[in-house]
Amino acid sequence: MSGFIEEKSFMLPRVALIACGCFSPPTPMHMRLFEIARDYFELRGTHKVVGGIISPTHDSYGKKGLAPALDRCAMIKLAAQSSNWIRLSDWEVHQPQWMRTKAVLHYHQNYLNNYINSPYDEEPNELLPGWLPPGLRERRDPIRLKLLCGADLLESFAVPGLWADEDIEEIVANHGLVVITRCGSNPEKFIFDSDILTKYQQNITLITNWVPNEVSSSLVRRLLSRGESVKYLLDDMVLNYIKRQGLYNVKSKYITDAVRPDHLNFNRAYMDNNKNAIKPESEQPEQLMEDESDSPLRQQTARVFCCGESSRTSTKLLLSRPGPGQAVQVMTVQSKDTIDGLEQSQPKKQKIAKVQQV
Q1: Full strand arrangement of the beta sheet holding 328-332
Q2: Assign residue 176 a region: left if phi > 0, alpha if psi is -120 to 50, beta otherwise?
Q3: Which segments constitute the Cytidyltransferase-like domain (predicted)?
Q4: Choosing a second label site near 31 at 20 to 30 A (CA), which of 81, 140, 344, 351?
């Protein structure tokens, strides 16, 4: 039975997913779009998803809050390094100017199918782009590249002057859309209101995301500029990179060095070409404010014990009487003269107590 399933999967039409945009910075939801789309196709047994491609836009796009292309590429590689099928394409950022989405799709679509149909020994592996999925030549049938997006991109087709009608028709007719929508939205109505989208609606796949996540790149930038925490909203290594490069006017006091720079698997080609290269650890500026949950412990004379815990030192401890289950602060007395004085005063205190009781 398993052999039959594998054979059926091998016969499915192949698709690749590409997401275009700023990715400034890339968020976990950007990665989730790929996972949601792949699950949809493969669980329904309609297509085999061979790869996911992230193509960040050119610097000349000029959108507010757009970090330099090399920094965005480095962050995407960090965000996607736990995935074995989502990859960065930097073709767009290395073009002389901003490219229309139609042109980006054309390039990647043509490269995929030309690679499949070319002789095996025509190109050495080292010349192949890093975004190219592995194992494409196991079959000779073409791969269809689909534009992966959220419902906001679909709705942007209606913004006057933003998209040319011929571009929309070219994308939907020759490639297709995979739209991840929010629960409660009505993308069908939007498609109905558009003559072009209605004409090619068989090429539009609508997928409802039942686990909504409203975290956006603009929200992350806003929180960073206000000095608020964005931990758990971004991958830790992306967050660490933002701090080290000083992106987005970062003021957050909660960004920490939880991951050391030696452990950050940056694409060294980007880092070597980046004029904002990472400084050695010894040159890193101190954090604006240390937080007890994520700053290294300092050596202090004061030590804190919980109930039931005792010090292993032979020094005397000055305690305040705690309540049950209450943490107390214990000051370690370092002076021997002070300790001797305390020991000698105990008999005097006992005598005074007896006199007061009489």
Answers
A1: 302-305, 328-332, 317-318
A2: left
A3: 18-222
A4: 140
pLDDT of 307 over the 60 cut: no
Report pLDDT for 317.
38
pLDDT at 347: 58
The helix (H) or strand (E) run that includes residue 10 is helix 2-11
Average pLDDT, the chain: 77
Q: Which one is predicted more confidently, 316 or 349?
A: 349
Please report, as a single letter, which amino acid is at residue 28.
P
Q: Which helix (H) or strand (E) holds 244?
A: helix 236-245
State the pLDDT at residue 83: 96
Dig out the tokens for 258 from the structure: 């939880």
Is residue 183 exposed (0-12), middle (13-18) or buried (19+ Cβ within 10 Å)? exposed
pLDDT > 70: percent of the chain:
65
β-strand partners of 21: 56
The 3 state secondary structure assigned to the chain is CHHHHHHHHHHCCEEEEEEEECCCCCCHHHHHHHHHHHHHHHHHCCCEEEEEEEEECCHHHCCCCCCCHHHHHHHHHHHHCCCCCEEECCCHHHCCCCCCHHHHHHHHHHHHHHHHHCCCCCCCHHHCCCCCCCCHHHCCCCEEEEEEEEHHHHHHCCCCCCCCHHHHHHHHHHCCEEEEEECCCCHHHHHHHCHHHHHCHHHEEEEEECCCCCCCHHHHHHHHHCCCCCECCECHHHHHHHHHHCHHHCCCCCCCCCCCHHHCCCCHHHHHHCCCCCCCHHHCCCCCCCCCCCCCCCCCCEEEECCCCCCCCCCCEECCCCCCCCCEEEEECCCHHHHHHHHHHHHHHHHHHHHHHC
pLDDT score for 155: 87
Q: What is the mean pLDDT of residues 254-276?
A: 49
Query: What is the pTM assigned to this prediction?
Result: 0.70
d(C-alpha 77, C-alpha 247), whole Å: 16
